[in-house]
TrEMBL record:
This is HTH-type transcriptional repressor Sco4008 C-terminal domain-containing protein. Gene3D superfamilies: Tetracycline Repressor, domain 2 (1.10.357.10). SUPFAM superfamilies: Tetracyclin repressor-like, C-terminal domain. The lineage of its organism: Bacteria, Bacillati, Actinomycetota, Actinomycetes, Micrococcales. It comes from Agromyces humatus. Pfam families: TetR_C_21.
C-alpha cells in the first residue's frame, strides 16, 4: 500500500513540476511550493530512505524521470547556462535536498522567504 500511495504522490509532483534546466532556481522554487503545500511528500520520502533503504525512490519510472532531468541539466551545462562545478546528477540532488529539507528546518519562516532562500542558494551553487 505504501508503494502505491508514494508512487502516486511522486508521479503528481513530477507532473506538476517539469524541470526547466535553463532556470533551475525557479524549478527549485516550484518544488518548495509543492513541498509546502504537501509536507507529507517529504516525510514519506524521508521515511522511505530511513526505513526502506530508499526502495520507493528507485522505481523504474522515477529513475527514468531523474535520468531525463539530469540529461536536461547536462545539456544546460554544455551550453554554459549551468555551472559544471557539480555533475548533472549531483546538481539535481542538491536541488532536491535544498528544496525539500529547508522548508522543514526553516519552519518558523514565511513560505515566501523559504522560497527565496532556496532559489538564491540554487542560483549561487549551480549558476
Amino acid at each position: 500500500m505504501f508503494d502505491a500511495v508514494f508512487a502516486a504522490l511522486i508521479a503528481r509532483l513530477v507532473a506538476e513540476n517539469p524541470i526547466d534546466a535553463q532556470h533551475l532556481d525557479e524549478y527549485a522554487g516550484d518544488l518548495v511550493d509543492s513541498y509546502l503545500e504537501r509536507p507529507e511528500l517529504v516525510r514519506l520520502a524521508l521515511w522511505d530512505r530511513l526505513e526502506r533503504g530508499g526502495a520507493g525512490m528507485r522505481s523504474p519510472e522515477l529513475l527514468a524521470t531523474d535520468a531525463a532531468k539530469a540529461a536536461a541539466i547536462a545539456d544546460a551545462q554544455a551550453s554554459g547556462v549551468v555551472s559544471t562545478r557539480f555533475d548533472a546528477a549531483e546538481a539535481l540532488a542538491i536541488i532536491i535536498v535544498v528544496a525539500s529539507i529547508l522548508p522543514l528546518v526553516l519552519d518558523d519562516t514565511s513560505d515566501a522567504r523559504v522560497r527565496e532562500v532556496v532559489t538564491t542558494a540554487v542560483t549561487r551553487l549551480l549558476g
